[in-house]
Amino acid sequence: MIQLPYGELAIGQKARSRGRTITETDVVNFCGLTGNWLAIHADAEYAKKSLYGQRVVQGGLVFVVANALFGFEPAVVEAFYGVDKLRFLKPTFIGDTLHAESEVIALRDKGERHGIATTRLTAVNQRDETVLSCEFSLLIRRERLPAE
């Protein structure tokens, strides 16, 4: 998502990630990790009778996969700073393949050594449907850490 030091970023810079298919294993592991065993995620028979006719992937899982698809450059990314305007626009299903898109929409100074970069982050499925949208902010170093 952000691979450059703060001073090299500009409003409008865009990136697109690789794709990743959401699997049954992902959903079950996320249920176990979070305790979110809601029937719409974990019970195939219940989900058949739901609005979508099948299990829906947890929104939290979609969010963490979408932002992680870019990876983080530890030499420039200091920390996750926050998320705003998070919306799940369409459901994600087991077997969907997502990619993420980001565009730098705001930059602001944060002390002498950092700035905050905010991107519009979207997750898009194989049907070209945007399933998630948010404003994703990172604390970015002004200078890249030296290689070790």
Automatic annotation (TrEMBL):
Q: Per its UniProt record, what InterPro entries does this chain match? A: HotDog_dom_sf, MaoC-like_dom, MCH/BMMD
Q: Which residue intervals define the domain MaoC-like in the entry?
A: 11-123
Any Pfam family hit? MaoC_dehydratas
Q: Which PANTHER family match?
A: BETA-METHYLMALYL-COA DEHYDRATASE, MONOAMINE OXIDASE-RELATED
Annotated protein name in UniProt: Dehydratase
Q: Which organism is it from?
A: Ramlibacter pinisoli
Organism ancestry: Bacteria, Pseudomonadati, Pseudomonadota, Betaproteobacteria, Burkholderiales
